[in-house]
Amino acid sequence: MSRYDDYEDDMPTSTLSDHDIERLLSGVIPDSIEAAQLVVFVDLIRAEGAGSPSEAMVAQVAREAAMLARATSSASVLTRAQPPRRWAGWRLRPQLVMAATAVLLFSGVSGVAIAANGAAPGDPLYGIDRALEKIGIGAGHAQERLAEANSLLSDGDAREALRHAVEVFDETDDVSEAPDIRDARAALENAAGSLDDDGATSNDVVRDNVSTLLEYLRENLGEQVGADGKDFGQGVADLAREIAPGQGQRPTPDPAHDNEPKDDEVGGPQSGGSGTGGGNSGGNGGNGAPGNSGTAPGRNQDS
Amino acid sequence: MPLGGDFESALDAAKAGADWAWAMLYRELAGPVTGYLASRGAPEPEDLAAETFLQVARNIQSFEGGEGAFRSWVFVIAHRRLIDARRKRGRAPELSTLPDEGLHSGGDVEDEALERVVTGELRLVLEILSEDQRDVLSLRIIGNLTIEETAQAVGKRVGAVKALQRRGLIALREHLEQDRVSL
Question: Can you give the pTM of this predicted structure?
Fold first, then answer.
């Protein structure tokens, strides 16, 4: 007996079978009277998707989407043509720290500091940038950490991007000890820790989620953090949990979901479901993701 | 109406940036996506549907899969956009009216008026569903997603999605029996 079967025992008594539910939801008249009574509601929900866009809207969206596709097509060709560079700066870090020290001692700092400040991970001057920040010169700010995180994400490294996002919180001194900020920081660390190398570099769902999180940080940093960071922290934590579902959960339950107390406790990983989905073809292979057999969008978020 | 055999060529052309291919894909999916977003309380469902497709365009180069996979991928992005919109708005989603701005349902004006009265009453019944139940049922019914695809879209386990849809349907049926709603 699976954990899902255990859960079934807690459900209200009903003669609605999985078979009836699948027929009902896929638009086929179900066998049982009980399920057939619900056809009108299913049809009502389905009717909401029955509209069609105006031709003007179609033309506008198609034009902009085609332009974006052409742009990303060119960008992907350029990206493939360049060798990987994201770890170069980190590997050289000890030497760069020494070099920065030597620069400080013998050459003055201003030129190098200016040149290094704002360098992104992977850039030759990035190690110098961080070394100078550690001794208080050209100290990195939250927005700089954020820019670096975006740079890492555009290189395909969602995990390192998240780790940089964690550092953003170290720059928000006024609220860094607030409980919600601490929760948000922990959720981000959990999310980063949940990604392995493969997940960090090949999963578009993860990258999209990380991109959304970075965008949220960019939009809200310094403006909506507020005195206690509550809304900001909770927003970040929610987004982080989307990256790593099931990790970094708050200890207190969400009252909005009190009527569904066991939904997230049911079953094992998504692949453990019985797969009775009806309707369309799916074609997800074994990982339950929307979509892809290879390196494409929608691979399992639990990577 | 699925694109069937035309999908593969449309996808290739869309990746290459052909307007006609994007028009075909958008025409096929804009209705369900807009309907889903509207049913889940998106403030500007048409705009959000358009934003969804622009995000699809940004990531289209890495997409591999068939028409069903593409459809579910689009809904995953739409659902994520919906969550962003809810968060920015900072309040709980509301049940919407049927999407009618820019979308044409066709039919007689009087019939549509009568239909609105009936559907308005039925829609009130749908309010007994929790947000999670409505997310799942809308993705299953409007998006035509499988259980696994729905689980991916909402970030829950397959068992949880099955439980949500079952609980939602049972709640509707029990409401029907209690209130003797006239259908």
Answer: 0.50
